[in-house]
Amino acid sequence: MIPVIVVFIYLASVLYIGIFAFRRSTQRNQAEDYFLAGRSLGVVVFLLSLFGTNMTAFALLGSSGHAFGNGIVTYGLMASSSALIVPLSLFFIGTRMWALGKKYGFMTPVQMFRDRWECSHIGTVITIVQAVLLVPYIIIGVMGGGTTMNALSHGRIPFWVGGAIVAMVVMSYVFFGGMRGTAWVNAFQTILFLLFGAIALGVIGAGMGGFGKAVSELAASPATSALLTRERISPLYFFSYTFIPLSSICFPHIIIFCLTAERVQHFKKTVILYPLCMLAIWLPAVFLGVTANRAVDVPAIQAKLEARKTLATQSATLSPAQKTELRAKAAGDDILVRLLEHYAPLWLVGLLGAGIMAAVMASDSQILALSTMFTEDIFAFYEGKTRFGEAAQVRTGHIFVILITVIAYVIALRWPQSIFDLAVQFAFSGYAALIPLLVGALFWQRSTKWGALAVTLWAAAAVLAVAVFQSVVPAPAPGAETGWGSLFGQAIVSRTAAGTSVLGFLPVVPMVLGSTLLMIVVSLVTAKPSEQTIRRYF
Amino acid sequence: MKRWFLVLLVIVLYALHQDVWFWRSAQPIVWGFLPVGLFYHVCFTLAVSGLMWLLVKLAWPTQLEQVTPSIPEEETER
After folding, report:
1. Contact call for B69 and A103, based on CB within 8 A
2. Interface mutation vs chain B, best among A80, A227, A390, A443, most B CBs within 10 Å
3. What is the ipTM of this complex?
4. What is the pTM of this model?
């Protein structure tokens, strides 16, 4: 029960931080204070919180699980590409968005779009698409909480109780603390991530008899030597992945968070240190995932390796149901937990539980972002603020926080997680395809509201098309693919075991290129905003 | 000139991310435990931090530091 106790101590700490932040605020009924912490966050909280907001359960668990199956490629695929693209987008887009927010009082990106492109209902369409793409994250967060509590207590805490506890804690500090509480909690969680990575690496490395030995053994075995290279993934797939981090700045909770800095100078340290934070968290997670392939003295890991071997050697004779069962057994999302359970003392397993909780509770900023979007882009825009006042707007935000959490919890209890895991995958590509909205609004005078509408509809339609395609066409066996059409000897569209590819690229590539083209072409053939508006921006 | 140098630097770093030259090789194992492909991307991450430092030093949008709130007319009247 020690891990569960450590997790409860963590949850209590998080609640305290949220309530402490609430008490510090003297302007509780002001929307800007509740939704943006009064644009007053200091540099340390801003950096740690922004980083924590960007990290999900995947950074800790999914990355080591992916590395367990695919090897060192995971780091280059997901960490070093984000380490480049995310700080660049913060530098070029985040700082400009901060300045516009400060100057014109914007609290959401759609407020800026409406002003910049002189539009109203097109802004509402953008809000709706952003919200639809964001909801699966919140549901996944609640599910992750329930699953983790259940696993750490060895089934003593049922999924529905664990999910309810996590949902209640998140809802409470978002409700009371608003952005200030959420930011402080995220900063605290980032410190926990950083500490956890370093401690886990040391303890497990010592337990395994040193990493040098594990890596030498991996390199010597023909079955595992490929894990130390990137030969399991194609260069086109690797290249495609550099488009995914474009989604980061387009996520409403990230771009809204950019508005919370007290001074634009806070971005300086943030963009320089962001890659180093990525390194500190992802390198241990990926490295441990890879070396876990030599942890054959851990029974649970040995079972995974055997399941993987059966899949590789007897795939032709297995039924689809057997394959599905074996894939589930071979999956590595719990690999870090298994390593720690075997090599680490119980208190550290508890700390891991808290770390996982911190990761799955990243849904806090998403709940707050949805609440901000609803109250600013819908309630205030359609005269709610004028008719009922600012205090009513903040109360509406509070009610929305409760509503969205309850809805997410109910859905989490009734629907299988796989659906939302898939939806989250699609959401990354969808948000990446929205990048021309920010780039067009901030850097291209000639961009128009019709271009923005075309980009938004394209992103929504493309996400839907990929989702329908993958649900209609069953996934082939790993390594195989079903292709349609041909161009330069390459299938135009393929269904692969991992998803979909277009001319060998991930769908995100044509999605981003298509939305960029649409922004350019549609903007050039439609009327631009008035000169007066353009002068205010350029 | 400085601007183009920085643009070129960003493009070069983006291109260096696609390191096909270490694709199928794990050797050498750096410091006895880091396969060269992983070591390369660790160095890449450090280089990105250096690039961001350069951008902050040489291309920081100082005009944004002077921004002050501009209150719309209707809010001033209210």
Report:
1. yes
2. A80
3. 0.91
4. 0.90
